[in-house]
Amino acid sequence: MNDSLRLVCEAVDTLDIDGIRDLVQRCLEEGHTPEEIIEHGIGKGLDLVGKKFEAGEYFLADLVMAGEVVKEVMPVLKERMNPVDAPRRQKVILATVEGDIHEIGKNIVGIILSANGYEVVDLGVDVSAGRILQAVKETGAGIVGLSVLLSTMVGGIRTVVEEAKAHGIRDRIKIVIGGACTSRALCEEMGADAYGENAMDALRIVNGFSENA
Amino acid sequence: MREYTVTLVPSGRSRPFPEGTILSDALVDMGVPLRTPCGGRGLCRRCRVRLGDDASTEVLACRSVVDRDVRVMVAGASTWEVSPFPGLTRGRRLGAAVDLGTTTVKVALVDVDRGRFHTVASFLNPQRRFGHDVVSRIAAAADLRARDRMTGLIRSALRVCLEKALLASRIDGTTIETVVLSGNTTMLSLFFGLDVSPLGRYPYAAATRDFPGVAPGEVGLDGIVGGEVKGLPVFSAFLGADLVGALTLFGRTSLEGWTLFADLGTNGELFLAAPSGEVFAASCAMGPALEGMNISCGMSADDGAITRIRSTPAGLAFDMMGTGEPAGITGTALVDLIAVLLDARVIRPDGRLDLDGGRGGLPEGLTAAPEGDMKAVGLWGGLRLTQMDIRNVQLAKAAMHAASRLLMDAAGVAPADVRRVVLAGALGEKMDLEGFMRLGFLPPFGGATFEVAGNTSLEAALTACIDPGFAAQAAQARQRVREVVLSEQEAFQDVFISSLDFPGG
């Protein structure tokens, strides 16, 4: 791979918030398109961050920092993107289900998805199924991420699934669940579409859904 | 669902169990006080039993399920014992104090008139099979049969424990006058057979905050208890009788400056008390790491457990209970170990293991022992401390650190204003203060004095056995409390994440 792109990848991987601007600038001066920089530099860097997180080498603060590093350069890149070529990434709605007010995990998922170019609509915590579906209709989002920490509140997932059916929009959205008390088995039980074990897993799932969309 | 019969050999006692029941659970239900200090993960091998007519097959009860009719010989397996109350004779007025922990239950007998007491037993809460923390138990209790099971399990464990304690103290047949329970709101509610569902749903309200005396027959303690069984008052869903009890104990002495009290447990509870009498309190989810439970090499203090680790000129030395190969390490040893590794710069302040692909600065006796992609330090007897274990300790310490910071913010005081810091909890008792602060469970306080108060939850229950006015005092003390709900604080996320790092060396 090109040296300058590799350096951007490394800067993301090593959370180099001070260095990233200049490195991205250099890539642009060398004639790389913003899309190339995002895909081969930033995206690859985030993959490495994710691998380290899953091995316990990076921790929550590092994920937040990785998000900050990417945020540092996204405005510059977006500005130069040709609107026609710009990848049309999906909108993703995030919410902590009704009855639960825990949000750190959800916020980290939001940071990682935004850093990867998704438009994240975060509805906050203790969000009713009604509000979530209203947001789906208003934004046209195709993916809904539901966070639950308290095992007492997992029923909130089913409520969203059922209400989406009742509104006739179940087929239009993918429902991804995550949070301390969730699991693959719970995902099946509740009739959701996917379970993300952590923020990086959530990104992989959302990538998969948006490619197939 | 199919059922199979479990038969004890040689007694011949038998009982049916649904297919898939974990054998150690079945044995506990049959009154075999089996010990599972590693929490049923097959690490400590203390629950070895023999199966079959000829008792030829040895298995770990915690890793076996009931999938056919089975005959079990438990001789040789490790069962928990009670410690006799020395010098106790018949005819005394007896009380029993119980600290009903999410993970660990402690029981003491009290010689009411002489004001003497003795801790007779400490055992893992048998409700653990329904989940390791209060929230998962609340969730499990949504199924009423499961709720009844949890209630029944803890009541019968307490009954068995008290019977054994009286027998061991050679006063079997006597009745205990009063039983006083302390513990978190969920544990008390489940013991008294109450609905716990509101505790698990925002805004997490406690339907019952007082547990006045009930007849022993209502809680399965008839025959052994003559008077009443009561719980100490709680403040809210997550500020339990343990916190209110500690506050009441402290209320008996005057405070000369801001005092921070921290009760370490699966659910950590803290209060910050002003000399004026104002009290700010918070609870935080620390998880069971310090009780050795979500740590790959963790176990509770029992045979085979490494209980302390320290640095010596000749390398690392450890204290162990019992003999043979170490089977795991306790929460206190875990804190010791991480402190040593921080000082050796093997663990960086951000919690990363830095092994440089080799030994790095590892103290003598330890090795680099990666587990797949994950870095880990090899300890003794095949035990390992993994990167994830360190992360779980960080989550616990960040929870408490963030809670104390947000309490101070709410009260408008700086760490330097705190004059006195009191650590309590079953762990606080044995915790090395230096290691505790080295890991940064609390921020540095400058001028404060530190005290280790031991198990104040049990102490409150003991005091209530001796002093009938204690529960009323506790209900009074409770009125001064202002709860700071951490997850409702805007700064919570930032404070929590910035609390994850260990202090620099």
Describe the structure.
- The complex is a heterodimer of chains A (213) and B (505).
- Chain A has 213 residues and is an alpha/beta fold.
- Chain A folds into two domains: 3-80, Methyltransferase, Methionine Synthase (B12-binding Domains), Chain A, domain 1, CATH 1.10.1240.10; 91-212, Rossmann fold (3-Layer(aba) Sandwich).
- In chain A, 56% of the residues lie in helices and 10% in strands.
- Chain A has a five-stranded parallel sheet with strand order 2-1-3-4-5, sandwiched between helices.
- The longest helix of chain A is centred in the N-terminal third of the chain and has 21 residues, at 34-54.
- The mean pLDDT of chain A is 88.
- Chain B has 505 residues and is α/β, with parallel strands linked by helices.
- Chain B has four domains: 3-73, Beta-grasp domain (Ubiquitin-like (UB roll), Roll); 94-231, Nucleotidyltransferase, domain 5 (2-Layer Sandwich), CATH 3.30.420; 242-288 and 393-498, Nucleotidyltransferase, domain 5 (2-Layer Sandwich); 298-381, no CATH class.
- In chain B, strand 15 and strand 16 (315-320) form a beta hairpin.
- In chain B, helix 5 crosses helix 10 (470-478) and helix 7 (387-411) crosses helix 11 (492-498).
- Chain B is globular and about 65 Å long.
- Classes of the chains: A alpha/beta (213), B alpha/beta (505).
- Chain A binds chain B through residues 51, 54-62, 64, 98-104, 107, 126, 150-154, 181, and chain B through 131, 135-136, 138-139, 142, 197, 200-202, 350-353, 373-375, 386-388, 390-391, 394, 487-488, 493, 496-498, 500-501.
